Amino acid sequence: MFSSNWLLVVLVTFLVTPLSRGQLTPSFSPSATLSPSSSPSALLDAGEPSASASASATAPPNPDRNKYFHEPGGDDLLHHYDARFFQRIVTDEERKDTLRHLIRAYFLTFEYLGLETWIAHGTLLAWYWNGKILPWDWDLDTQVTDQGLKLLAKHYNQTYYDYEEGDGQSKRRYYLDVNPWAWQRDRGDGANIIDARFISVDNGLFVDITGLSEVYPDTEPGIIMCKNNHRYRLRDIFPLRHTYFEGVKAKVPFSYVPILTEEYSDAALVRTEFQEHRWDANSREWLKIPKDQDVVKEEGGSKRGVSMKDDGAYA
Ligand SMILES: *[C@@H]1O[C@H](CO)[C@@H](O)[C@H](O)[C@H]1NC(C)=O
């Protein structure tokens, strides 16, 4: 049960966690290791697993019981935040701003630590178009090797990183956390397919990091896969290509085209309309498609557009 003792533990760890790492013992349930957040929602969320644990004697196995990374909710609006740092649903502007700096900070940090990593999934598709995040993205994906994952877990688990743009804006802080289930290399119950996360402390948005390993070296040599059963030929990934993403040095798989077409279809590399956005070849940006009525306004001449807007504004 969610006892007051347990609450005390959470509050105490809140005070000490930023000072050092690894002082929480494995006897805590994974969700109890959360906590560098003072938000009440994180406390509530952390209470859930113990409740389900006590119910487990009678209830059927619940994959979420073993889940390490928690989100404040499972729906589209909530599953892109780490529960420990979630405070509120961010605006579109804050989301884009956070993700852009998040991926910059990620690559700068990994370069600084000397760890190899590269862009994956939807983030790779974003890079393919213009080396920037997609304006409708909610999270970011990267990959590392299983060796990289070991280094992350051994030396950098639960560490914080500060990042400054140098543009007078305030410092941003990030938290790197490695899933204890990172060693299980098959999909398992599916609750822990993300091996590590690089999280924005400000609002909980994150980079999902997955490790790739050769799971069946005897029967499938040269095939590396993540725990969500994405399979890659070693020679499609390596040697990694050096590139830039959001203005910082980054890496992508050697044969990114087959990787992208396999995951997203051939059409994804030529289709110029996605998610209410249209690719603009001149500016090399994804621009939001104006809503129907806006298009009509433009066709009817700018004057009419303006007067309609005025009507709306002053009605
Ligand atoms: C990372 O640290 C937390 C807290 O000590 C721990 O629960 C978790 O198992 C660690 N991850 C790995 C991969 O060792």
From TrEMBL:
It is a single-pass membrane protein. The keyword Mitochondrion does not apply. It is found in: Membrane. Residues 114-218, 227-264 form the LicD/FKTN/FKRP nucleotidyltransferase domain. This is LicD/FKTN/FKRP nucleotidyltransferase domain-containing protein. Keywords: Membrane, Signal, Transmembrane, Transmembrane helix. Residues 1-22 form the signal peptide. Residues 28-69, 295-315 are annotated as: Disordered. Residues 28-59 have a biased composition (Low complexity). Pfam families: LicD. PANTHER family: FUKUTIN-RELATED, RIBITOL-5-PHOSPHATE TRANSFERASE FKTN. One of its GO terms (cellular component) is membrane. GO terms for biological process: glycoprotein metabolic process.
